[in-house]
């Protein structure tokens, strides 16, 4: 039966069910529309929007996110093509430019931090991937913000810079527009050099603003150079590229004909002081050795090796003086090798006599020098002799015998090589040249061979007569004419002073010259007078024998009558026994 007042009671639950179904259907439709819209945005590429969001109202959607300049109509059209979407409305934020455009990679408290600007999501993903690869087990903190205005090649440069910084201990890098900076400490010398090279080879358009890259720290700090047959090996470390290059260049200059192998690294920890000067001194020391090694360890220099010439003591003394402040000599251990061939040389020229080469011991050296200083009375004797084993038998006699002949030369060279001796030079007059040749060959010991070549030096310019007396007096103040004891025979050692006096007499053709003999007070007065006259005449005879016209040269003896010093002392008596050349 029909009862209108009661049927509405059943309609209420039906309405509720209908409403619930309608709401559920609308929500599902909006979810599908929103999901389809997001999928459509993804199809536009990762660089279309950052952090994209979609809100659906029915079949209409509102899009949020950060825009990177993609045309608004393109975004809307792309979303509206999604299934179920009727209209799309954009409420995106436009990315703003940054000036300067900065980017940084750093290590901070056990994590890797990326900060600064990045232009696009794809670039952000790339640099994040590079940072995670570089960070190893460290977490990567992303503090990047989007900004436009990135320099061309930003992504490539950022990734390359991260790679450079990752290779350094506590490495950091930064970009400011197109300027690149990198800092950190290298683990090895090789890594340090590679980092310096990489910092200079940047992608096109970027420049190096700062490279604060430290080489590794070494302790102990060692520099070494080893010399062997045909090879020089440089090892250890130097504090900079400049010092390393200087050491290599110095080695090449010192060791010509050797293959220089450079194994030097760059490191911190060098001792304070002039490290470059210390390494160059070590190289110079090694150059004097046949083989050996020079090692600087924390500023202490040690030399080992072998060389002819017993140079160890002399080298040690030289190094102690020359080592720069802050460096010390640890040891010098040089094994002596026999010198072969055994070299000795005397050079006489322009008032200088230089002795060089080897002598077997200090006594022989002292003896040769004493004789040389006596015979070369008018020259400055320079000693450049070194001790060395291997001298031929009779060496000392050969040299001292040749010195008397050598001393009579105006200029020349005496050279000894093993058992071969050679004398070459110029005498002051013809007769002297003949006598020097004969005396040199006669003085050769057994087993020695000699060659001699002596010419004659042209006489000097003529002197005014007034200048002759000072010239004679000057010579006799330096050298002395000596006679055999108690007699008038000239000693052979008087040859050099007599030759200088003859050369001066040749330059004084107008001077009347008296050769005066004097004695000390020992002995009878009449005998001293007679001895002094004989000695004066012996000198004049020597001059005449030289081929000089002696018609203007007279001889006179004064005995003990004109002393110039006290006869109470041996020294005074020696001064009184003399020959004088007096210009009348």
Give me the secondary-structure topology.
Elements: H1 8-43, E1 49-57, E2 60-67, H2 72-80, E3 87-90, E4 93-94, E5 102-108, E6 111-118, H3 121-135, E7 140-146, H4 154-166, E8 169-176, E9 179-185, H5 189-200, E10 207-214, E11 222-228, E12 231-238, H6 241-254, E13 259-262, E14 265-266, H7 275-287, E15 291-297, E16 300-308, H8 312-322, E17 328-337, E18 343-349, E19 352-359, H9 362-375, E20 380-387, H10 395-407, E21 411-417, E22 420-427, H11 430-442, E23 449-456, H12 465-478, H13 495-506, E24 513-518, H14 525-545, E25 553-557, H15 570-576, E26 578-583
Parallel strand pairs: 2-3, 2-4, 6-7, 9-10, 12-13, 12-14, 16-17, 19-20, 22-23, 24-25
Antiparallel strand pairs: 1-2, 5-6, 5-8, 8-9, 11-12, 11-15, 15-16, 18-19, 18-21, 21-22, 24-26
What does this molecule look like?
The protein is α/β, with parallel strands linked by helices and 584 residues long. It has 5 domains: 8-93, Histidine-containing Protein, Chain: A, CATH 3.30.1340; 102-214, 3-Layer(aba) Sandwich (hypothetical protein tt1634), CATH 3.40.1520.20; 222-337, 3-Layer(aba) Sandwich (hypothetical protein tt1634), CATH 3.40.1520; 343-456, hypothetical protein tt1634, CATH 3.40.1520.20; 465-583, OmpA-like domain (60s Ribosomal Protein L30, Chain: A, 2-Layer Sandwich). The protein is 37% helix and 30% strand. It has 15 helices and 26 strands. The strands form 5 sheets. Strands 11, 12, 13, 14, 15, 16 and 17 form a 7-stranded mixed β-sheet that branches. Helix 9 (362-375) links the parallel strand 19 and strand 20 (380-387). The protein is rod-shaped and about 155 Å long. 34% of the residues are buried. Residues 17-26 have low confidence and may be disordered.
């Amino acid at each position: 039966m029909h009862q209108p007042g009661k049927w509405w009671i059943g309609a209420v639950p039906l309405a509720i069910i209908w409403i619930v179904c309608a709401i559920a259907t609308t929500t599902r439709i909006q979810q599908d529309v929103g999901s389809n819209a997001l999928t459509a945005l993804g199809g536009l590429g990762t660089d279309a929007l950052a952090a994209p969001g979609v809100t659906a109202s029915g079949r209409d959607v509102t899009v949020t996110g950060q825009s990177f300049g993609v045309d608004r109509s393109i975004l809307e059209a792309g979303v509206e093509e999604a299934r179920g979407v009727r209209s799309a409305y954009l409420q995106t934020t436009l990315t703003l430019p940054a000036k300067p455009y900065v980017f940084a990679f750093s290590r901070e408290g056990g994590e890797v931090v990326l900060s600064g600007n990045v232009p696009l999501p794809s670039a952000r993903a790339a640099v994040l991937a590079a940072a995670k690869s570089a960070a190893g087990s460290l977490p990567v903190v992303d503090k990047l913000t989007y900004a436009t205005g990135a320099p061309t090649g930003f992504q490539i440069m950022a990734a390359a810079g991260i790679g450079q910084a990752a290779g350094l201990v506590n490495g950091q890098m930064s970009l400011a527009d197109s300027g690149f900076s990198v800092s950190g400490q290298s683990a090895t010398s090789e890594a340090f050099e590679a980092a310096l090279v990489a910092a200079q080879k940047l992608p096109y358009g970027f420049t190096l603003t700062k490279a604060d890259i430290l080489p590794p720290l070494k302790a102990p700090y060692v520099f070494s150079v080893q010399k062997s047959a045909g090879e020089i090996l440089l090892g250890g470390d130097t504090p900079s590229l400049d010092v390393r290059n200087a050491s290599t260049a110095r080695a090449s200059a010192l060791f010509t004909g050797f293959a220089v192998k450079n194994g030097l690294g760059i490191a911190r920890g060098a001792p304070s002081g002039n490290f470059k000067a210390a390494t160059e001194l070590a190289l110079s020391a090694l150059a004097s050795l046949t083989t050996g090694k020079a090692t600087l360890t924390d500023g202490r220099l040690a030399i080992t090796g072998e060389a002819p010439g017993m140079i160890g003591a002399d080298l040690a003394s030289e190094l102690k003086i020359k080592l720069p402040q802050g460096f010390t000599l640890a040891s010098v251990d040089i094994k002596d090798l026999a010198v072969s061939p055994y070299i000795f040389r005397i050079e006489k020229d322009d008032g200088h006599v230089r002795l060089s080469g080897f002598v077997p011991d200090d006594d022989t050296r002292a003896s040769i020098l004493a004789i040389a200083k006596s015979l070369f009375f008018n020259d400055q004797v320079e000693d450049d002799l070194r001790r060395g084993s291997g001298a031929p038998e009779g060496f000392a006699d050969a040299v001292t015998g040749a010195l008397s002949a050598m001393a009579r030369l105006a200029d020349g060279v005496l050279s000894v090589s093993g058992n071969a001796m050679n004398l070459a030079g110029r005498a002051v007059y013809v007769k002297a040249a003949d006598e020097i040749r004969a005396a040199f060959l006669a003085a050769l010991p057994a087993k020695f061979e000699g060659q001699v070549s002596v010419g004659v030096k042209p006489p000097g310019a003529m002197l005014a007569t007034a200048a002759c007396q000072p010239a004679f007096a000057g010579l006799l103040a330096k050298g002395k004419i000596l006679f055999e004891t108690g007699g008038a025979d000239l000693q052979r050692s008087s040859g050099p002073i007599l030759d200088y006096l003859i050369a001066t007499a040749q330059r004084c053709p107008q001077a009347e010259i008296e050769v005066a003999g004097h004695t000390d007070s020992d002995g009878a007065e009449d005998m001293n007078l007679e001895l002094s006259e004989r000695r004066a005449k012996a000198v004049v005879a020597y001059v005449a024998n030289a081929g000089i016209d002696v018609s203007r040269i007279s001889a006179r003896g004064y005995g003990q009558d004109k002393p110039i010093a006290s006869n109470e002392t041996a020294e005074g008596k020696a001064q009184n026994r003399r020959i004088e050349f007096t210009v009348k």
